[in-house]
Write a structure and sequence with these properties.
Length: 102
């Protein structure tokens, strides 16, 4: 975790192993968000979460529900891993919707 004091951001880089328990990850993610909010700072969460953001599934929906409840969103929109045969979006940049505007 790094704080950009002059800008009011807290940056957290998170890696989630594909073998890690997703539900524990989700709970810990919520604790991180709450800690950042308790300090009245703007969150910037990034990293390799090993979740397929381009494939709608229960895990993705649960994560999106959590982020939505804190008015947050993934700003990454295109594939972050490209091979000759596949494309995936598993690396993310999450921030508050008020901060990121299209």
């Amino acid at each position: 975790m790094t704080e950009l004091v002059d800008y009011g951001y807290i940056i957290v880089c998170i890696y989630r192993s594909p073998d890690n328990n997703f539900w524990i990850f989700l709970k810990n993610l919520e604790l991180i968000i709450l800690k950042i909010q308790s300090r009245n700072k703007k969150p910037l969460l990034c990293g390799d979460w090993n979740l397929k953001f381009m494939v709608n599934n229960k895990r993705l929906q649960e994560l999106q529900n959590l982020l939505e409840s804190y008015n947050m969103m993934n700003t990454a929109r295109s594939p972050t891993r490209i091979t000759p045969s596949t494309e995936s979006l598993i690396d993310v940049i999450i921030t508050n919707k008020k901060i990121f505007q299209y």
